[in-house]
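Record Flavin-containing monooxygenase, 392 aa.
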Amino acid sequence: MSQRVAVIGAGPSGLTSIKSCLDEGLKPTCFESSDDIGGLWRFKETPEPGRSSIYRSLVVNTSKEMMCFSDFPMPADYPNYMLHSQLLQYLRLYAQHFDLLRHITFQTSVLTVRQRPDFSHSGQWEVVTENREGQEQRHIFDGVLVCSGHYTQPVSPLDQFPGHESFPGRCLHSWEYKDADAFRGKRVVVVGIGNSGGDIVQKRHSTRKGAWVLSRMSSSGLPLDMTAISRLTVLLTSLLPRALVNWAAERTLNHRYDHRLYGLQPTHRLLEQKPLINDDLPGRILQGAVVLKPDLRGFQGSGLLFQDGTTEEDIDAVVFCTGYNGTFSFLPPSLCSGPGGDLNLYRYLYNTDAPPLYQGVLVVPLCQGYSTGGLRARIGSFINLDWPFDQF
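=>
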């Protein structure tokens, strides 16, 4: 009898997980809280609580050559870096080609994922779901794949800034931002210099620690990830001292434009954090179209005070691009007891206190650039683990 696996979420990771489970002879059941597939890549005019939200102009940061699933190439007429709507259409084509929709239960939320009382022997999990009518149902599964993403709980540090209570303008998180129309002609400050901040900024950009900025285009006009991600690059990065790799890569970036002169020089080394992928920001700084400001200190009436003592007056809106909490409220507390609430799973895969041969919880955090062959290998080992952890 095929082992039953729950797949939570019908975004890119959920769809490929369903396909990989079928390839491995497993019986997947996918629970999707909305009424359609696509997850993060479904644009909605109005953000919905508890779900990811993107803005109208969003273009992916991974080229189609690296993003496409290994068993389903993207259409030849797609651009190398596509708009979110094109990626969503690709996911629809993928689901249709492999007949995945019949394994998805829509408008069904997962409330809890808990070990059964006999878990030490069976390794089974009880999954409680709720449909759109509010009816709860209990299911028993041999394994659980968490593919619900982590861009659903925005982090807003507004309470950290004194004077925000009397600010007459609008404060919002990038999760709420849809397009620039609502802010046209207004004085807006963007706080945070991640990818969303780099895309959304109009004139004033406040950053606490700067960022290393990479363009989507690399040498000879090729997509960056096609030239930067290779077996040779991975080999050299693993063999050479990390400090040397950082120095060489940062030197190359600074040859294009000196991050210090542009006010972008970060406090961290290149390989310590994700870089900012943006084609326009340095040029806009050079033209004076974007003015970089230091970290925000607080609000003063309708103005903002920054850490260097400067102010910006008559501000109409502040957009916080300050990230998300990667929480999974339906998982057992024992799996969410890592530092800072991180998942207590070995390499985001296995709960090590489970039986030597078990069926457990696997979190699939990557939603793009994922080889389906590699995912099949993960799922095959996840459902039939029979080697020690130190051999990964």
